Amino acid sequence: MSINLSGMMKTIRNIMREDTGLNGDAQRIEQLGWMIFIKVLSDKEKELEMLADNYVSPLPKAYHWDNWAGDDEGMTGDQLLSFVDQKLFPDLRRLDVSSGSRRALIIRDVFEGNHNYMKSGINLRRVLNKLNELDFNIAEERHLFGDIYEGILKELQSAGKSGEFYTPRAVTRFITDMINPQLDEKILDPACGTGGFLTCAIEHLKNQISRADQRKGLQENVCGWEYKPLPFLLATTNLILHDIEIPNLSFDDSLSRPLNEYKQKDKVHVIITNPPFGGVVANGYEKNFPQNFRTKESADLFLILMIRLLNDGGRAGIVLPDGSLTGEGVKQRIREKWLTDCNLHTIIRLPNSVFSPYATVATNLLFFEKGKPTQEIWYYEHRLPEGQKAYSKTKPIRVEEFDPIKQWWNHRKESDVAWKVSIETIQDRGWDLDIKNPNRKEDETIHTTAELLAMLHDSFRKSDILLDQLKKELL
After folding, report:
1. 5-135 CATH
2. Cα separation of 290 and 328, whole Å?
Protein backbone atom coordinates (compact mmCIF):
# COMPACT_ATOMS: atom_id res chain seq x y z
CA MET A 1 0.00 0.00 0.00
CA SER A 2 1.35 3.38 -1.02
CA ILE A 3 0.11 5.56 1.86
CA ASN A 4 2.33 5.81 4.89
CA LEU A 5 -0.45 6.21 7.46
CA SER A 6 1.72 6.79 10.50
CA GLY A 7 3.74 9.40 8.56
CA MET A 8 0.49 11.06 7.48
CA MET A 9 -0.77 11.25 11.07
CA LYS A 10 2.56 12.67 12.22
CA THR A 11 2.27 15.44 9.60
CA ILE A 12 -1.31 16.20 10.72
CA ARG A 13 -0.18 16.36 14.35
CA ASN A 14 2.61 18.80 13.44
CA ILE A 15 0.21 21.05 11.47
CA MET A 16 -2.18 21.09 14.45
CA ARG A 17 0.62 22.06 16.82
CA GLU A 18 1.16 25.20 14.72
CA ASP A 19 -2.47 26.27 15.21
CA THR A 20 -3.10 28.66 18.12
CA GLY A 21 -6.67 27.38 18.64
CA LEU A 22 -5.63 23.91 19.78
CA ASN A 23 -4.59 23.40 23.37
CA GLY A 24 -3.53 19.91 24.46
CA ASP A 25 -4.15 16.33 23.34
CA ALA A 26 -7.87 16.16 24.14
CA GLN A 27 -8.69 19.15 21.88
CA ARG A 28 -6.45 17.82 19.10
CA ILE A 29 -8.18 14.42 19.26
CA GLU A 30 -11.64 16.05 19.21
CA GLN A 31 -10.63 18.21 16.21
CA LEU A 32 -9.26 15.22 14.34
CA GLY A 33 -12.24 13.14 15.49
CA TRP A 34 -15.00 15.15 13.82
CA MET A 35 -13.01 15.47 10.58
CA ILE A 36 -12.34 11.71 10.40
CA PHE A 37 -15.99 11.07 11.26
CA ILE A 38 -17.34 13.17 8.39
CA LYS A 39 -14.77 11.71 5.96
CA VAL A 40 -15.58 8.11 6.95
CA LEU A 41 -19.31 8.85 6.82
CA SER A 42 -19.11 10.59 3.41
CA ASP A 43 -17.11 7.72 1.90
CA LYS A 44 -19.71 5.27 3.22
CA GLU A 45 -22.60 7.40 1.87
CA LYS A 46 -20.92 7.44 -1.56
CA GLU A 47 -20.78 3.63 -1.52
CA LEU A 48 -24.43 3.29 -0.44
CA GLU A 49 -25.61 5.67 -3.19
CA MET A 50 -23.79 3.53 -5.75
CA LEU A 51 -25.27 0.29 -4.40
CA ALA A 52 -28.89 1.49 -4.19
CA ASP A 53 -30.48 3.85 -6.73
CA ASN A 54 -33.14 5.00 -4.27
CA TYR A 55 -30.78 5.69 -1.35
CA VAL A 56 -31.13 9.21 0.05
CA SER A 57 -28.33 10.38 2.31
CA PRO A 58 -29.34 12.24 5.50
CA LEU A 59 -26.13 14.27 5.14
CA PRO A 60 -27.00 17.46 3.18
CA LYS A 61 -25.13 17.58 -0.15
CA ALA A 62 -23.25 20.78 0.73
CA TYR A 63 -21.71 19.05 3.77
CA HIS A 64 -20.65 15.88 2.01
CA TRP A 65 -16.83 15.74 2.26
CA ASP A 66 -16.28 15.94 -1.50
CA ASN A 67 -18.24 19.18 -1.78
CA TRP A 68 -16.36 21.28 0.78
CA ALA A 69 -13.15 19.45 1.70
CA GLY A 70 -12.40 17.02 -1.13
CA ASP A 71 -10.73 19.46 -3.56
CA ASP A 72 -7.13 20.15 -2.50
CA GLU A 73 -7.35 23.49 -4.30
CA GLY A 74 -10.77 24.33 -2.84
CA MET A 75 -11.87 26.65 -0.04
CA THR A 76 -9.13 27.78 2.33
CA GLY A 77 -8.24 30.57 4.75
CA ASP A 78 -11.05 32.71 6.20
CA GLN A 79 -13.59 31.39 3.67
CA LEU A 80 -13.08 27.79 4.86
CA LEU A 81 -13.07 28.78 8.52
CA SER A 82 -16.28 30.78 8.10
CA PHE A 83 -17.94 27.84 6.27
CA VAL A 84 -17.06 25.35 9.03
CA ASP A 85 -17.93 27.63 11.98
CA GLN A 86 -21.01 29.37 10.57
CA LYS A 87 -22.59 26.77 8.30
CA LEU A 88 -21.32 23.19 8.72
CA PHE A 89 -21.52 22.98 12.52
CA PRO A 90 -24.73 25.01 13.07
CA ASP A 91 -26.64 23.22 10.27
CA LEU A 92 -25.57 19.69 11.28
CA ARG A 93 -26.50 20.46 14.90
CA ARG A 94 -29.99 21.35 13.64
CA LEU A 95 -30.25 18.39 11.25
CA ASP A 96 -33.83 17.21 10.74
CA VAL A 97 -34.20 13.83 12.48
CA SER A 98 -38.01 13.58 12.20
CA SER A 99 -37.72 10.77 9.62
CA GLY A 100 -36.43 8.49 12.40
CA SER A 101 -33.20 7.83 10.48
CA ARG A 102 -30.63 6.57 12.96
CA ARG A 103 -27.87 7.83 10.69
CA ALA A 104 -29.31 11.38 10.79
CA LEU A 105 -29.58 11.18 14.58
CA ILE A 106 -25.94 10.11 14.92
CA ILE A 107 -24.75 12.99 12.67
CA ARG A 108 -26.73 15.51 14.73
CA ASP A 109 -25.57 14.09 18.07
CA VAL A 110 -21.91 14.03 16.98
CA PHE A 111 -21.91 17.70 15.97
CA GLU A 112 -24.12 18.83 18.86
CA GLY A 113 -21.39 18.62 21.46
CA ASN A 114 -18.13 18.87 19.53
CA HIS A 115 -16.26 21.89 18.17
CA ASN A 116 -13.89 23.24 15.57
CA TYR A 117 -10.97 24.59 17.57
CA MET A 118 -8.64 25.52 14.72
CA LYS A 119 -8.16 29.25 14.21
CA SER A 120 -6.26 29.16 10.91
CA GLY A 121 -8.24 28.25 7.79
CA ILE A 122 -4.93 27.61 6.01
CA ASN A 123 -3.87 25.02 8.62
CA LEU A 124 -7.35 23.49 8.45
CA ARG A 125 -7.02 23.13 4.65
CA ARG A 126 -3.60 21.47 5.09
CA VAL A 127 -5.11 18.87 7.44
CA LEU A 128 -8.08 18.23 5.10
CA ASN A 129 -5.68 17.68 2.21
CA LYS A 130 -3.78 15.04 4.19
CA LEU A 131 -7.07 13.26 4.97
CA ASN A 132 -7.95 13.41 1.24
CA GLU A 133 -5.21 10.82 0.73
CA LEU A 134 -7.46 8.25 2.43
CA ASP A 135 -10.30 6.26 0.86
CA PHE A 136 -12.27 4.52 3.61
CA ASN A 137 -14.18 2.45 1.04
CA ILE A 138 -11.02 0.46 0.40
CA ALA A 139 -11.23 -2.21 3.12
CA GLU A 140 -7.46 -2.50 3.52
CA GLU A 141 -7.08 1.27 4.07
CA ARG A 142 -10.00 1.31 6.48
CA HIS A 143 -8.61 -1.55 8.56
CA LEU A 144 -5.07 -0.19 8.59
CA PHE A 145 -6.39 3.20 9.61
CA GLY A 146 -8.40 1.41 12.35
CA ASP A 147 -5.08 0.43 13.93
CA ILE A 148 -3.82 4.03 13.70
CA TYR A 149 -7.11 5.24 15.18
CA GLU A 150 -6.65 2.87 18.12
CA GLY A 151 -3.34 4.63 18.78
CA ILE A 152 -5.12 8.01 18.72
CA LEU A 153 -7.64 6.74 21.29
CA LYS A 154 -4.86 5.38 23.48
CA GLU A 155 -3.42 8.90 23.68
CA LEU A 156 -6.53 9.87 25.63
CA GLN A 157 -5.26 7.80 28.56
CA SER A 158 -2.73 10.50 29.38
CA ALA A 159 -4.89 13.46 28.25
CA GLY A 160 -6.06 14.61 31.69
CA LYS A 161 -9.69 13.87 32.52
CA SER A 162 -10.26 12.27 29.12
CA GLY A 163 -8.39 9.19 30.38
CA GLU A 164 -11.70 7.97 31.79
CA PHE A 165 -12.92 7.16 28.27
CA TYR A 166 -10.19 4.66 27.43
CA THR A 167 -9.80 1.14 28.85
CA PRO A 168 -6.54 -0.67 27.96
CA ARG A 169 -7.21 -3.08 25.11
CA ALA A 170 -5.64 -6.00 26.99
CA VAL A 171 -8.43 -5.58 29.57
CA THR A 172 -11.29 -5.22 27.05
CA ARG A 173 -10.03 -8.25 25.10
CA PHE A 174 -9.69 -10.45 28.18
CA ILE A 175 -13.16 -9.59 29.53
CA THR A 176 -14.75 -10.13 26.09
CA ASP A 177 -13.00 -13.49 25.62
CA MET A 178 -14.11 -14.73 29.05
CA ILE A 179 -17.74 -13.58 28.60
CA ASN A 180 -17.74 -15.07 25.06
CA PRO A 181 -20.72 -13.19 23.51
CA GLN A 182 -22.69 -15.00 20.77
CA LEU A 183 -24.26 -13.71 17.54
CA ASP A 184 -27.86 -14.08 18.72
CA GLU A 185 -27.24 -12.21 21.98
CA LYS A 186 -27.88 -8.54 22.68
CA ILE A 187 -24.65 -6.98 24.00
CA LEU A 188 -24.54 -3.64 25.82
CA ASP A 189 -21.92 -1.27 27.17
CA PRO A 190 -23.91 1.33 29.15
CA ALA A 191 -20.83 3.59 29.54
CA CYS A 192 -19.10 2.86 26.25
CA GLY A 193 -16.47 5.63 26.18
CA THR A 194 -14.59 5.38 22.88
CA GLY A 195 -16.12 1.98 22.08
CA GLY A 196 -13.28 -0.33 23.15
CA PHE A 197 -15.49 -3.08 24.59
CA LEU A 198 -17.89 -2.83 21.65
CA THR A 199 -15.17 -3.17 19.01
CA CYS A 200 -13.74 -6.17 20.89
CA ALA A 201 -17.22 -7.73 20.87
CA ILE A 202 -17.59 -6.99 17.13
CA GLU A 203 -14.27 -8.68 16.29
CA HIS A 204 -15.18 -11.63 18.53
CA LEU A 205 -18.56 -12.02 16.79
CA LYS A 206 -17.19 -11.63 13.25
CA ASN A 207 -15.47 -15.01 13.69
CA GLN A 208 -18.91 -16.61 14.15
CA ILE A 209 -20.48 -15.23 10.94
CA SER A 210 -21.28 -17.79 8.25
CA ARG A 211 -24.31 -16.11 6.52
CA ALA A 212 -24.91 -12.58 5.16
CA ASP A 213 -28.01 -12.01 7.32
CA GLN A 214 -25.95 -12.59 10.49
CA ARG A 215 -23.93 -9.44 9.75
CA LYS A 216 -27.11 -7.31 9.97
CA GLY A 217 -28.01 -8.96 13.29
CA LEU A 218 -24.54 -8.17 14.64
CA GLN A 219 -25.02 -4.47 13.78
CA GLU A 220 -28.30 -4.38 15.71
CA ASN A 221 -27.19 -6.43 18.70
CA VAL A 222 -24.02 -4.54 19.69
CA CYS A 223 -25.25 -1.44 21.57
CA GLY A 224 -23.60 1.37 23.49
CA TRP A 225 -24.66 4.40 25.54
CA GLU A 226 -22.44 7.42 26.12
CA TYR A 227 -23.39 10.87 27.39
CA LYS A 228 -20.22 12.89 26.79
CA PRO A 229 -19.78 14.39 23.30
CA LEU A 230 -16.10 13.60 22.66
CA PRO A 231 -16.19 9.86 23.44
CA PHE A 232 -19.56 9.53 21.62
CA LEU A 233 -17.95 10.99 18.49
CA LEU A 234 -14.87 8.75 18.84
CA ALA A 235 -16.93 5.61 19.52
CA THR A 236 -19.16 6.24 16.49
CA THR A 237 -16.14 6.53 14.18
CA ASN A 238 -14.50 3.53 15.87
CA LEU A 239 -17.49 1.30 15.11
CA ILE A 240 -17.74 2.51 11.49
CA LEU A 241 -14.04 1.66 11.05
CA HIS A 242 -14.92 -1.84 12.32
CA ASP A 243 -17.43 -2.26 9.43
CA ILE A 244 -20.56 -1.27 11.36
CA GLU A 245 -22.60 0.78 8.86
CA ILE A 246 -24.91 2.46 11.37
CA PRO A 247 -23.61 2.08 14.93
CA ASN A 248 -26.32 1.27 17.47
CA LEU A 249 -25.13 4.01 19.84
CA SER A 250 -27.23 6.37 21.97
CA PHE A 251 -26.06 9.81 23.05
CA ASP A 252 -27.59 9.44 26.48
CA ASP A 253 -26.82 9.33 30.20
CA SER A 254 -27.48 5.76 31.36
CA LEU A 255 -28.55 7.02 34.80
CA SER A 256 -31.11 9.52 33.47
CA ARG A 257 -34.08 7.12 33.36
CA PRO A 258 -35.97 5.88 36.43
CA LEU A 259 -34.92 2.29 37.09
CA ASN A 260 -38.50 0.99 36.98
CA GLU A 261 -38.92 2.28 33.40
CA TYR A 262 -36.63 -0.47 32.11
CA LYS A 263 -38.91 -3.34 31.08
CA GLN A 264 -38.27 -6.82 29.64
CA LYS A 265 -37.79 -5.41 26.09
CA ASP A 266 -34.86 -3.32 27.35
CA LYS A 267 -32.99 -6.26 28.85
CA VAL A 268 -29.81 -7.72 27.39
CA HIS A 269 -27.88 -11.01 27.45
CA VAL A 270 -24.40 -9.54 27.94
CA ILE A 271 -22.93 -6.44 29.60
CA ILE A 272 -19.25 -5.61 29.21
CA THR A 273 -18.18 -2.24 30.61
CA ASN A 274 -15.87 -0.04 32.61
CA PRO A 275 -18.39 2.28 34.31
CA PRO A 276 -17.18 5.71 35.45
CA PHE A 277 -15.85 5.51 39.00
CA GLY A 278 -14.90 8.21 41.41
CA GLY A 279 -17.54 10.35 39.69
CA VAL A 280 -20.37 12.21 41.39
CA VAL A 281 -23.80 11.69 39.84
CA ALA A 282 -25.17 14.88 38.25
CA ASN A 283 -28.67 16.33 37.85
CA GLY A 284 -30.10 14.51 40.87
CA TYR A 285 -30.20 11.27 38.85
CA GLU A 286 -29.69 9.25 42.04
CA LYS A 287 -33.43 9.91 42.62
CA ASN A 288 -34.11 7.55 39.67
CA PHE A 289 -33.08 4.69 41.96
CA PRO A 290 -34.91 3.10 44.93
CA GLN A 291 -34.42 4.96 48.22
CA ASN A 292 -32.27 2.27 49.87
CA PHE A 293 -29.77 2.29 46.94
CA ARG A 294 -29.39 6.04 46.45
CA THR A 295 -25.82 7.30 46.37
CA LYS A 296 -23.82 10.00 44.60
CA GLU A 297 -21.13 7.44 43.61
CA SER A 298 -21.65 6.66 39.91
CA ALA A 299 -20.01 3.18 39.93
CA ASP A 300 -22.43 1.96 42.63
CA LEU A 301 -25.50 3.17 40.72
CA PHE A 302 -24.20 1.53 37.54
CA LEU A 303 -24.05 -1.75 39.45
CA ILE A 304 -27.76 -1.52 40.35
CA LEU A 305 -28.57 -0.50 36.75
CA MET A 306 -26.65 -3.48 35.34
CA ILE A 307 -28.43 -5.93 37.62
CA ARG A 308 -31.73 -4.49 36.32
CA LEU A 309 -30.70 -4.59 32.65
CA LEU A 310 -29.50 -8.22 32.56
CA ASN A 311 -31.86 -11.01 31.56
CA ASP A 312 -32.03 -14.00 33.88
CA GLY A 313 -29.03 -16.07 32.83
CA GLY A 314 -27.37 -12.93 31.43
CA ARG A 315 -23.61 -12.46 31.92
CA ALA A 316 -21.49 -9.46 32.78
CA GLY A 317 -17.78 -8.66 32.86
CA ILE A 318 -16.99 -5.27 34.39
CA VAL A 319 -14.19 -3.13 35.82
CA LEU A 320 -14.62 -1.76 39.36
CA PRO A 321 -12.26 -0.03 41.78
CA ASP A 322 -11.47 -1.39 45.25
CA GLY A 323 -13.76 1.28 46.72
CA SER A 324 -16.84 -0.44 45.27
CA LEU A 325 -15.92 -3.75 46.97
CA THR A 326 -16.08 -2.35 50.48
CA GLY A 327 -17.83 0.29 52.60
CA GLU A 328 -20.91 0.39 54.81
CA GLY A 329 -24.45 1.74 54.50
CA VAL A 330 -25.76 2.04 50.94
CA LYS A 331 -22.58 0.44 49.52
CA GLN A 332 -23.17 -2.62 51.71
CA ARG A 333 -26.86 -2.85 50.68
CA ILE A 334 -25.91 -2.66 47.00
CA ARG A 335 -23.37 -5.50 47.39
CA GLU A 336 -25.91 -7.61 49.27
CA LYS A 337 -28.46 -7.20 46.45
CA TRP A 338 -25.77 -7.94 43.86
CA LEU A 339 -24.66 -11.18 45.53
CA THR A 340 -28.25 -12.23 46.23
CA ASP A 341 -29.57 -11.62 42.69
CA CYS A 342 -26.40 -12.67 40.84
CA ASN A 343 -23.68 -15.29 40.97
CA LEU A 344 -20.47 -13.25 41.30
CA HIS A 345 -18.17 -16.15 40.53
CA THR A 346 -14.81 -14.47 39.74
CA ILE A 347 -12.83 -11.43 40.85
CA ILE A 348 -9.49 -10.71 39.14
CA ARG A 349 -7.46 -8.31 41.29
CA LEU A 350 -5.28 -6.03 39.16
CA PRO A 351 -2.19 -4.05 40.17
CA ASN A 352 -3.01 -0.39 40.80
CA SER A 353 -1.07 1.01 37.82
CA VAL A 354 -3.16 -0.58 35.01
CA PHE A 355 -4.95 2.72 34.29
CA SER A 356 -2.00 5.04 34.88
CA PRO A 357 -1.30 7.84 34.26
CA TYR A 358 -5.04 8.67 34.28
CA ALA A 359 -5.77 6.80 37.52
CA THR A 360 -3.63 4.92 40.03
CA VAL A 361 -6.40 3.30 42.09
CA ALA A 362 -6.44 -0.47 42.47
CA THR A 363 -9.02 -2.04 40.15
CA ASN A 364 -10.73 -5.39 39.69
CA LEU A 365 -12.34 -7.34 36.87
CA LEU A 366 -15.59 -8.92 38.04
CA PHE A 367 -17.61 -11.62 36.30
CA PHE A 368 -21.18 -12.50 37.26
CA GLU A 369 -24.40 -14.11 36.04
CA LYS A 370 -27.92 -12.89 36.84
CA GLY A 371 -30.56 -15.20 38.30
CA LYS A 372 -28.72 -17.33 40.88
CA PRO A 373 -27.30 -16.22 44.23
CA THR A 374 -23.55 -16.34 44.84
CA GLN A 375 -22.33 -19.46 46.69
CA GLU A 376 -18.58 -18.86 46.50
CA ILE A 377 -16.24 -16.38 44.84
CA TRP A 378 -12.94 -17.24 43.21
CA TYR A 379 -10.22 -14.59 43.47
CA TYR A 380 -7.16 -14.39 41.24
CA GLU A 381 -4.33 -11.96 41.93
CA HIS A 382 -2.86 -10.74 38.64
CA ARG A 383 0.73 -9.71 39.28
CA LEU A 384 3.07 -7.39 37.43
CA PRO A 385 5.52 -9.07 35.04
CA GLU A 386 8.74 -10.07 36.75
CA GLY A 387 11.16 -7.18 37.15
CA GLN A 388 8.48 -4.55 36.41
CA LYS A 389 7.57 -2.19 39.26
CA ALA A 390 4.48 -0.64 37.63
CA TYR A 391 2.59 -0.32 34.36
CA SER A 392 3.20 2.90 32.45
CA LYS A 393 2.51 4.64 29.15
CA THR A 394 5.52 2.90 27.60
CA LYS A 395 4.98 -0.43 29.41
CA PRO A 396 1.21 -1.01 29.49
CA ILE A 397 -0.53 -4.22 30.46
CA ARG A 398 -0.35 -6.73 27.57
CA VAL A 399 -2.92 -9.26 26.28
CA GLU A 400 -0.52 -12.20 26.78
CA GLU A 401 -0.32 -11.50 30.51
CA PHE A 402 -3.86 -12.88 30.84
CA ASP A 403 -2.93 -16.28 29.32
CA PRO A 404 -2.27 -17.96 32.72
CA ILE A 405 -5.71 -16.80 33.94
CA LYS A 406 -7.35 -18.19 30.79
CA GLN A 407 -5.65 -21.55 31.38
CA TRP A 408 -6.79 -21.53 35.02
CA TRP A 409 -10.37 -20.41 34.21
CA ASN A 410 -11.96 -23.80 33.39
CA HIS A 411 -9.78 -25.90 35.73
CA ARG A 412 -9.66 -23.84 38.91
CA LYS A 413 -7.29 -24.72 41.71
CA GLU A 414 -6.05 -22.76 44.69
CA SER A 415 -2.46 -21.53 44.41
CA ASP A 416 -0.25 -18.67 45.54
CA VAL A 417 -2.32 -16.37 43.26
CA ALA A 418 -5.79 -18.00 43.41
CA TRP A 419 -8.17 -18.62 46.33
CA LYS A 420 -11.89 -19.04 46.94
CA VAL A 421 -14.16 -17.58 49.59
CA SER A 422 -17.57 -18.90 50.68
CA ILE A 423 -20.67 -16.71 50.74
CA GLU A 424 -20.89 -17.31 54.52
CA THR A 425 -17.47 -15.68 54.98
CA ILE A 426 -18.58 -12.74 52.79
CA GLN A 427 -21.79 -12.32 54.85
CA ASP A 428 -19.82 -12.44 58.12
CA ARG A 429 -17.64 -9.63 56.76
CA GLY A 430 -20.70 -7.43 56.12
CA TRP A 431 -20.64 -8.28 52.39
CA ASP A 432 -17.12 -6.82 52.16
CA LEU A 433 -15.41 -8.19 49.00
CA ASP A 434 -12.01 -6.54 49.47
CA ILE A 435 -10.26 -9.79 50.46
CA LYS A 436 -6.47 -9.92 50.29
CA ASN A 437 -4.62 -12.98 49.06
CA PRO A 438 -4.30 -15.39 52.05
CA ASN A 439 -1.77 -17.54 50.13
CA ARG A 440 0.77 -14.78 49.55
CA LYS A 441 4.09 -15.54 51.27
CA GLU A 442 4.81 -13.33 54.28
CA ASP A 443 7.68 -11.49 52.62
CA GLU A 444 5.45 -10.77 49.61
CA THR A 445 2.55 -9.33 51.60
CA ILE A 446 1.19 -6.10 50.16
CA HIS A 447 -0.27 -3.79 52.78
CA THR A 448 -2.87 -1.09 52.33
CA THR A 449 -2.02 2.53 53.21
CA ALA A 450 -4.09 2.23 56.40
CA GLU A 451 -2.20 -0.94 57.40
CA LEU A 452 1.17 0.70 56.73
CA LEU A 453 0.21 3.75 58.84
CA ALA A 454 -0.95 1.47 61.66
CA MET A 455 2.33 -0.49 61.50
CA LEU A 456 4.31 2.76 61.53
CA HIS A 457 2.29 4.06 64.49
CA ASP A 458 2.91 0.78 66.34
CA SER A 459 6.62 1.02 65.57
CA PHE A 460 6.78 4.58 66.99
CA ARG A 461 4.89 3.42 70.10
CA LYS A 462 7.34 0.58 70.69
CA SER A 463 10.28 2.98 70.15
CA ASP A 464 8.83 5.36 72.77
CA ILE A 465 8.53 2.50 75.29
CA LEU A 466 12.15 1.43 74.67
CA LEU A 467 13.35 5.04 75.00
CA ASP A 468 11.50 5.41 78.31
CA GLN A 469 13.09 2.21 79.64
CA LEU A 470 16.53 3.38 78.51
CA LYS A 471 16.08 6.75 80.27
CA LYS A 472 15.04 5.02 83.52
CA GLU A 473 18.13 2.76 83.39
CA LEU A 474 20.44 5.72 82.74
CA LEU A 475 18.94 7.66 85.62
Report:
1. 1.20.1260.30
2. 17
